[in-house]
Design a protein that fits this description.
alpha+beta, Translation Initiation Factor IF3, 4-stranded mixed β-sheet, elongated
């Protein structure tokens, strides 16, 4: 699967656009991680527990997006974007989305 944040793929011609594809995950904070994070807000620095959680969430959302693209016969996703939003207190959604295309080498 070819993934790109641009609308073109160097060395490829886009032969078909199949529309929008997306993948998402919703994560809740973990009590144990919250305790450590609270301590870090007092002393400062990166909250690594949340950084790791968000990185895992982005990867999961991206993988779900790829699976959906493969289901509809695409071999590439262009214009990929990520967004996040709060769903309810202490939870957030990570959404990955892009344009599903068929591309051939030129």
């Amino acid at each position: 699967m070819i993934l790109t944040t641009s609308s073109t793929i160097p060395g490829y011609a886009i032969t078909e656009s199949k529309g929008l594809v997306k993948g998402s995950t919703i994560r809740a904070r973990h009590v144990g991680k919250d305790i450590v994070a609270s301590l870090r807000t007092v002393i400062g620095g990166e909250i690594k527990e949340y950084t790791e959680m968000m990185a895992e969430s982005r990867e999961e959302a991206k993988q779900r997006m790829i699976e959906r693209a493969e289901e509809i016969g695409a071999n590439a996703i262009t214009d990929i974007r990520f967004t996040t939003s709060m769903v309810m207190s202490n939870t957030s959604e990570i959404l990955a989305y892009g344009t599903v295309v068929r591309a051939v080498r030129t």
